[in-house]
Specification:
By secondary structure, this protein is mainly α. The chain has one domain. It is 72% helix and 4% strand. The chain has a two-stranded antiparallel sheet with strand order 1-2. The chain is globular.
């Protein structure tokens, strides 16, 4: 256990804020995973498994239990995504024999947005009252913001697992919100990280569209 908690030791400081080894290497793996996903490489999921594991440990150490509990869900979604990307149907393959990038229909887009609008207030209300339901948890600081982040994250992951182009819209909304939240909280390192994620989101948005157009021309 001593080695586990040593991961929380400060690796370096930026703007007077200490960055632990766990945070630093978690960020590196997260950026690598998103960059590979932007290039439509299925190996991003293998990197993602390690990244999720580090996030679980980091949130456990910081006692951010809501975010911690999201990580096992992310593992399941990532496993589903890896399976879908590497074992597509005959009519869903691209030139690399991996899942082809596709778009949601307007009806599907409406349903995803509607689901998000229902999920966020309900989950936010649950988090708001969690300390009364189970007194082991302290009162949530920003329950509805946490719920919005969770909703955007899960929606983006589910769409990415199906290789739907719209996933990048949700990733971008998530990271734009993170940039604003981090800056308003006086953080220095995390806004830089969120901007890097946002840049990779734009790369994914453009690359997946080009991949879809290329396949369409071939067909």
């Amino acid at each position: 256990m001593k080695e586990f908690f040593s991961l929380q030791n400060i690796f370096f400081e930026i703007g007077g804020q200490g960055i632990s080894y766990l945070e630093f290497f978690g960020v590196l793996l997260g950026l690598a995973s998103v960059f590979l996903a932007g290039l439509a490489r299925s190996v991003n999921y293998w990197v993602g498994f390690v990244y999720v594991g580090l996030l679980f440990l980091m949130f456990l150490q910081k006692r951010l239990y809501t975010n911690m509990l999201l990580q096992p869900v992310s593992i399941v979604i990532n496993a589903y995504g890896l399976y879908r990307w590497t074992r597509p149907g005959d009519r869903q393959k691209n030139e690399r024999n991996q899942l082809l990038t596709t778009f949601l229909t307007n009806k599907q887009r409406f349903l995803y947005v509607l689901s998000l609008l229902v999920f966020v207030p309900l989950w936010g209300l649950f988090l708001y009252n969690l300390h009364e339901i189970w007194d082991v948890f302290p009162p949530a600081r920003a329950p509805f913001l946490d719920a919005a982040v969770a909703g955007l994250l899960l929606t983006a992951q589910i769409l990415a697992a199906q290789k739907k182009w719209e996933c990048w819209i949700f990733w971008m909304l998530l990271n734009i919100g993170n940039v604003v939240m981090y800056i308003s909280s006086g953080l220095v390192f995390m806004p830089i990280v969120a901007i890097c994620f946002l840049i990779f989101n734009v790369i994914g948005l453009i690359h997946w569209k080009k991949e879809w157009e290329k396949h369409k021309e071939i067909c």
